[in-house]
DNA sequence: TGTACATCAGTGAACGCGCGTTCACTGATGTAC
DNA sequence: TGTACATCAGTGAACGCGCGTTCACTGATGTAC
């Protein structure tokens, strides 16, 4: 057990091997997708026998769960850093796209096709709401600071709905207009990103970045 | 071989069994996702031995390919029918959502996480462009019939790009504004739909339909 | 209408494979006196 | 500093499993004369 900041050599070694296992796992996911992840294959690639990995992970499921956790953490860190340095939605958007392009399968591990049986570990919801919180922080200061609902504009209905259904932003002071912008940021950018990463734009002859920037421009104004 | 419209009893039987195999395949995909599809499991469920399926499909890959083809076809038919009966983007949007909710895994087979090695059969691109064509037909008649580019509005840059990169709409007379609307329809609705189908809204306490309708309203105006 | 032959759906055994996982064991590393 | 013991990383054999796929074969259905 680690006491305080002290780390025994054995613990350091353990941490290193664990890290390498995860690295190889990511490589394998990048090469064949998450369903093709195999403990034995990882072990072979590391020059070890299969059962050795059980010293580090209880089994395949625990490894995948850990990878999902890491993916969420990495995204949350990226978004938080971007928010701290640029502090507008455009900055967040670019950081998100860069992060996604860096490792498409990592993106898909979070936002891709769900496996019908599987349920992500509960604690990722904490990280997920951290991401939402950062998004709301950045979406908040934007122009529309109207508290009274203007029945005329086309978003009135949505904002009324959001005002009454905000469990996901329960402890955040953001106003309906900010909630709306944060959600749009999320859904619209995900729309383009996931299609781009899946290759649906290839062969169409247009530049995904152009579409993406255009959406960002709409979100920021 | 079928000559003209004539069909021998044997051919009818073959077609029926093929159809049942596909049905079971869809059930299995719905239950465990596409990677979990197994020929032997399908055979067992139909009360046959595994090798029997090789009379109907050359192998697992051909079956999956066939399912992808069917999924595209089904979507194209749905969109075409909706376009014929309602003829506006809102109608198409609702038809799309209904179709997706009907069988989420079918949606994901087209728009979900791609398997790194696999490449969809070439002929689905034909169906894919049929879908795009219908979309463009419906996006066209809308208000913005300006041919000259207005440098002031925020979509000017995107429309200029689209005017010069339109391989995907090569033989369609749609103007830049219509191209833009069709693409937005696609990316924005996909953004919400895929998040909804993957369950990312559950636990947030808001109604995906409300978000979806809001986007549709923006697209139609 | 009846017989001879061809077609073809489906079976059962078998092959080789890689998977996740368990278990008893070896040998190296660290700890206590 | 040296010895006795405990901890723990990694091995190799083994288990049971389900997979895709092949092959030689049986038996039913259709076709030709």
Q: Helix fraction of chain A?
A: 55-70%
Number of helices of chain A: 9
Quaternary state of this entry equals homodimer
* Class based on secondary structure composition and strand pairing of chain A: mainly alpha
The portion of residues forming beta strands of chain A comes to under 5%
The most extensive interface between chains reads: A-B, 53 and 54 residues
Summary keywords:
9 helices; mainly alpha; homodimer; DNA-binding
Describe this structure in words.
The structure is a homodimer of 221-residue chains. The first copy, chain A, has 221 residues and is an all-alpha fold. The first copy, chain A, has helices at residues 9-32, 39-46, 60-85, 89-102, 104-111, 124-139, 156-164, 176-197, 208-220. The longest helix of chain A has 26 residues, at 60-85. The radius of gyration of chain A is 21 Å and the shape is globular. Chain B binds a DNA duplex (33 and 33 nucleotides) through helix 1 and helix 2.
Could you write a compact summary of the structure shown?
2 copies of one chain form a homodimer. The first copy, chain A, is mainly alpha-helical.
List the helices and strands and how they pair.
Two copies of one chain form a homodimer.
Chain A: H1 9-32, H2 39-46, H3 60-85, H4 89-102, H5 104-111, H6 124-139, H7 156-164, H8 176-197, H9 208-220
Chain B binds a DNA duplex (33 and 33 nucleotides) through helix 1 and helix 2.
């Amino acid at each position: 057990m680690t006491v305080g900041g002290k780390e025994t050599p054995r613990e350091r070694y353990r941490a290193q091997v664990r890290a390498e296992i995860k690295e190889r796992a990511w490589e394998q996911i990048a090469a064949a997708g998450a369903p093709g992840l195999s403990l034995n294959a990882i072990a072979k690639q590391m020059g070890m026998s299969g059962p050795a990995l059980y010293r580090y992970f209880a089994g395949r499921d625990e490894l995948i769960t850990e990878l999902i956790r890491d993916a969420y953490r990495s995204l949350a860190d990226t978004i938080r850093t971007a928010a701290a340095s640029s502090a507008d939605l455009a900055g967040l958007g670019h950081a998100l796209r860069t992060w996604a392009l860096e490792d498409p399968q990592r993106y898909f591990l979070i936002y891709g096709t769900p496996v019908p049986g599987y349920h992500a570990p509960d604690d990722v919801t904490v990280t997920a709401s951290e991401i939402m919180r950062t998004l709301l922080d950045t979406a908040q200061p934007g122009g529309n600071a109207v508290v009274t609902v203007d029945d005329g504009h086309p978003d009135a209905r949505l904002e009324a709905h959001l005002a009454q259904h905000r469990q996901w932003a329960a402890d955040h002071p953001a106003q309906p207009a900010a909630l709306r912008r944060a959600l749009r940021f999320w859904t619209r950018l995900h729309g383009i990103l996931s299609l781009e990463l899946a290759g649906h734009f290839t062969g169409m002859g247009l530049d995904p970045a152009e579409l993406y920037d255009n959406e960002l421009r709409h979100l920021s104004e």
